[in-house]
Amino acid sequence: MAEHANLNVVGQAPLRPLLKWAGGKRWLVPHVEPLWEPYSHLRLVEPFCGGLAVALGLNPQAVLANDINPHLINFYNQVKAGLVVTLPMENSEGLYYEYRQRFNELIRAGKHNSKEAAELFYFLNRTGYNGLCRFNGKGEFNVPFGRYKAIKYVREFPEYTDLFQGWQFSSVDFAQLDVKGTDFIYADPPYDVEFTQYAKDDFKWDDQVRLAEWLAEHPGPVILSNQATERIVELYRELGFELQFLQGPRRISCNGDRTPAREVLATRNI
Ligand SMILES: C[S@@+](CC[C@H](N)C(=O)[O-])C[C@H]1O[C@@H](n2cnc3c(N)ncnc32)[C@H](O)[C@@H]1O
Question: How do residues 112-129 score in pLDDT, each as one tens digit?
Answer without folding.
Answer: 999 999 999 999 999 999
